[in-house]
């Protein structure tokens, strides 16, 4: 029964905070300045712990360690299978500590404990194992030159990598970046989000236990404009991989351009459309639309924040959506009955509420929700707006909260046009039984991932990334491995040909 599960989880609900310092060159250390910052529990607004506040000087130390580990250490020189073996060990350690790790993300980010344990942590483990298995299968090719030359390519690790991580998926997004970089033989500096530093420091500890050599994986906690900016502008970081807001993505790219032209990959926001056609299975469509916007409290870059419904089923579907939103359980993310925890922090909470006010003022029809919940903490009611026009702010901006924007449509052409009427292009969903409609719309919508009769259908083997202002570069799949590899061409004459 739910009650038993909840009470047996109560020891887990107050995890001891074991790691609060920066992890540089295999050791936990204070920041150079000695400064710390508070990490807050969004269920209450109370301080969980004080965390070392890294800044430029700490990033410098971390990069020095990573550079030394890259130039002189064993990691890039190990065989792929040896790196893979150590990564497998790292994955096993995550498995051993799954509950504790899920609990850290729950108190730090307000994420559902049950989902963390069943989805996020296992996903991170699979990610490590997937790239561990790929580590000994990285090779170049023999070239078919057009002259009397023998040529081949070598794939080499790109060097020292900076990973800048957001707060909405502190575990998954860390491993989505760290795993392929480790497999490639890179060394790295991870800058977790200031809202959610706890699990990243724990992962640093587990990496050391697994046998990842000192200096290979460094974690510097701290703020974006200081520690984050020091990563993107560092002269000795070879590549930076960023997931976060478009505003910050632009700054990261600018800093990279103005410093050493490091390789950049950006996974930014979205305003992803979910298009539901007249022939859709209504229950499935309602389920997907609700999950698409409410999963992880709407704090998902792929959230289906624009829902377009064809006119024949509009009224019936909207009724189902409102029923489901009203029945959606918001509350303590440790409670297994709860479907939505608090937003990550006060800033996001207020930002979402201000978008809701905008929606009301702009003339969209508020069908349900629209307010903070009565209890303490950063909880917001599942909110649905109908009659949302393209020019409204709530149709254009990424809200990053539990706020759905609904609109009615007539034709397939209109569906395609509306789906594409955004500066973003991260994901799109299509619900229909008609294969021709599904195929036509899939090919016409400019987005990196198209989900047909499903949503949030992530898989480690499935490349993920943006079109347009949702960024560039791909996480997941073997594509992601190539973000962390350089291609070197080696050429030599055949026979006695000169050049
Ligand atoms: P959000 O706005 O959703 O909080 P951000 O894009 O601001 O997301 O944050 C994502 C990550 O980028 C965090 O780790 C944050 O510290 C970092 N960050 C924020 N500002 C900068 C910056 N100017 N340069 C580099 N990183 C930054």
Q: Biggest sheet: strands, sense, closure?
A: 7 strands, mixed
Distance between the termini: 76 Å
> Which regions contain 5 or more consecutive residues with pLDDT less than 50?
none
Helix/strand-derived category reads: alpha/beta
Describe the structure.
This protein is α/β, with parallel strands linked by helices. 39% of the residues lie in helices and 19% in strands. It is built from 16 helices and 20 strands. It has helices at residues 2-8, 56-71, 80-96, 98-109, 113-134, 172-184, 198-210, 224-232, 246-258, 282-294, 314-327, 346-362, 393-396, 412-419, 435-444, 477-483; strands spanning 22-24, 27-29, 36-41, 46-52, 142-143, 149-157, 160-164, 187-191, 217-219, 239-243, 263-267, 273-276, 306-310, 365-368, 383-386, 403-409, 427-431, 449-452, 471-472, 485-493. The strands form five sheets. Strands 14-15-16-13-12-17-18 form a seven-stranded mixed sheet, sandwiched between helices. Strand 15, helix 13 (393-396) and strand 16 (403-409) form a beta-alpha-beta unit. Helix 3 packs antiparallel against helix 5 (113-134), helix 3 (80-96) runs antiparallel to helix 6 and helix 10 packs across helix 11. The radius of gyration is 24 Å and the shape is globular. The model has no long low-confidence stretch (mean pLDDT 96). Bound molecules: adenosine-5'-diphosphate (ADP). Adenosine-5'-diphosphate binds next to helix 8 and helix 9.
């Amino acid at each position: 029964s739910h009650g038993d599960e909840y009470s047996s989880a109560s020891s887990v609900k107050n995890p001891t905070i074991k790691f609060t310092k920066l992890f540089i060159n295999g050791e936990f250390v204070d920041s150079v300045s000695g400064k710390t910052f508070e990490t807050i529990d969004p269920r209450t607004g109370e301080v969980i712990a004080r965390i070392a506040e890294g800044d430029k000087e700490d990033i410098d130390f971390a990069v020095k360690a990573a550079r030394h580990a890259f130039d002189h250490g064993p990691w890039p020189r190990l065989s792929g299978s040896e790196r893979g073996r150590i990564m497998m060990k790292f994955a096993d350690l995550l498995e051993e500590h799954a509950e504790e790790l899920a609990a850290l993300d729950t108190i730090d980010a307000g994420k559902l404990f049950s989902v963390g344990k069943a989805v996020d942590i296992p996903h991170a483990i699979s990610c490590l194992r997937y790239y561990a298995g790929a580590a000994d299968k990285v090779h170049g090719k023999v070239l078919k030159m057009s002259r009397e030359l023998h040529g081949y390519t070598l794939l080499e690790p790109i060097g020292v990598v900076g990973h800048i991580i957001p707060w909405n998926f502190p575990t998954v997004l860390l491993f989505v970046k760290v795993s392929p970089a480790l497999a490639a033989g890179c060394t790295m500096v991870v800058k977790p989000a200031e809202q959610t530093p706890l699990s990243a420091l724990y992962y640093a500890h587990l990496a050391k236990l697994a046998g990842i050599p000192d200096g290979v994986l460094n974690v510097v906690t701290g703020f974006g404009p200081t520690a984050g900016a020091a990563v993107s502008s560092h002269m000795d970081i070879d590549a930076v991989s960023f997931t976060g807001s478009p505003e910050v993505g632009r700054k990261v790219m600018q800093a990279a351009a103005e410093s050493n032209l490091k390789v950049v990959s950006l996974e930014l926001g979205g305003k992803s459309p979910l298009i539901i056609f007249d022939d859709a299975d209504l229950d499935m469509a309602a389920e997907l639309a609700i999950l698409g916007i409410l999963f992880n409290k709407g704090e998902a870059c792929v959230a289906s924040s624009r829902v377009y419904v064809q006119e024949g089923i509009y009224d019936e579907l909207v009724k189902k959506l409102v029923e489901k939103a009203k029945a959606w359980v918001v509350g303590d993310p440790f409670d297994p009955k709860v479907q939505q925890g608090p937003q990550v922090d006060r800033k996001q909470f207020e930002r979402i509420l201000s978008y809701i006010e905008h929606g009301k003022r702009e003339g969209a029809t508020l069908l349900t929700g629209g307010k903070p919940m009565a209890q303490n903490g950063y909880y917001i009611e599942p909110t649905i707006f109908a009659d949302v026009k393209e020019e409204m702010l709530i149709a254009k901006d990424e809200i990053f909260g539990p706020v759905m924007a609904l609109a009615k449509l007539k034709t397939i052409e209109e569906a395609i046009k509306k789906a594409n009427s955004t500066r973003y292009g991260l994901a799109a969903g299509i619900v229909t039984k008609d294969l021709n409609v599904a195929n036509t719309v899939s090919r016409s919508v400019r987005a990196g991932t198209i989900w047909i009769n499903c949503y949030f259908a992530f898989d480690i083997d499935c490349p993920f990334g943006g079109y347009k202002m949702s960024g560039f570069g791909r996480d997941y799949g073997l594509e992601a491995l190539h973000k962390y590899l350089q291609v070197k061409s080696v050429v030599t004459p055949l026979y006695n040909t000169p050049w």
